[in-house]
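**Folding the chain**
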Amino acid sequence: MAERAPAGGAADGPAVAVVGSANIDLIATVEAAPAAGETVLATGYAEEIGGKGLNQAVAAASSVPTALVAAVGDDPEGERVRAHARARGVDVREVGGVSARTGRALITLFDQDNVIVVAPLANAGLTAPAVDAALRRLRPAVVLTQFEISEAAVRAAALWCRRSGARLLINPSPVRRVADEVLALADPLVVNLGEAAALAGVGPGEAAGADPAALAGRLAPRVRSVVVTAGPGGAWVGDGGPARHLPVPERVEVVDSSGAGDAFAGRLAAALAVGDGLDAAVRSAVAAATRLVATPRERR
């Protein structure tokens, strides 16, 4: 399939707009994951600024002008979110304030893995009209969205891209059903193995052993393109022909895997926005995620 040229954004607008969430992350580190009903003591605790939308915007902003379209609370935490993003080069003009509290994510880290529970709170206040109006003002070349916001907000971003000719990246995390009309616009759909299996209709018992190339092949007819990520296994790309495997550039010691998916998605959007072909953009994103997991959280 021929690669698409980068869409023409506004001369003074961002190359990438990320439509998504912004949260305060409450992070506890434990020696081992607690069993059901068990209470364990944390060995460490931190509060950080996060949310998939904000994290992906920061990743994209390290390479290209990037704006965040999000909703935070009219509270001190909302201003902390804006200040954090602004300090990392993200345009926050379209981060609106709502009466609900700024979103929270409860994160437990253990054994180089994590468990996350997100309370959307203000993120639920990002409405479809607000998304449409923000994108009309920004006119980005590429729009990246995820699922810590409402289905209506995601759909508004997708339909704006269809009208404007901007390229749409969908990262359906946390995974939920996606309307066919929205899914068909994904270019690419960016999914990990679990998300790919869920969207492809693979049962929970089969998902663990599912073949990434087969998953990409099952999803490709429903989207413009698809990227299935597999951590140290690299990524598989499908866009009409047999899925292509793009391995990690080098093996590294995994120090902290949290945030790798967001780094991948943000870097992928940035590379596509400057005109890289899909394979080249995926290679760049794989390299960025690989570097991140080898970096301790305190040095990021």
The first strand starts at residue 16 and ends at 19. The mean pLDDT is 91.
